[in-house]
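debug: dumping io for the single-chain case to check the tokenizer round-trip. Nothing else runs in this session.
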Amino acid sequence: MKKISLQQRRILLLLHIIFAAIMLGVQVVFIILALTASVTSDADVLQACYTIMHLLADSSVRASTIGTTVTGIALSLLTSWGLFRYYWIMAKEVLTLLAIAIGFIGLYEWTLRGLNDNGSLTVHHTWLLIGIALQTLSLVIMYILSVWKPGGKRKAPAL
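debug: decoded output
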């Protein structure tokens, strides 16, 4: 496959970093809103927290996840990194699948349930907090892998 120029690579990398930064920023907002929702006794504040989290799950989480995934795959395929050449890239791919599952399915559904089910918010709030914690952990690990690139290159399979 034809590789891209240095300028194209920089633009693609910049887009990838921007989408990843949006993901992390939204994650911080989710943490703040979830903590607020967990300590408030005001029904209006609780409703507002879940409404905002649901809106973010349906918009920013989805857009940034798609953008980060698409630009990450493009960077792997269009540069010398490859999809399966380095262990750290393979680890990021697995963590990306986890982030997609939590972001697209978990956060959206858990906030939707919280909005519809005022009688049992604590059950859904527990799952939401677990999802937020897993999502945050996976994002932080992906950042660490991107900076340190541990594990090195895979050995070529013997034919």
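debug: round-trip ok. Helices lie at 6-39, 43-58, 60-78, 87-116, 121-148.
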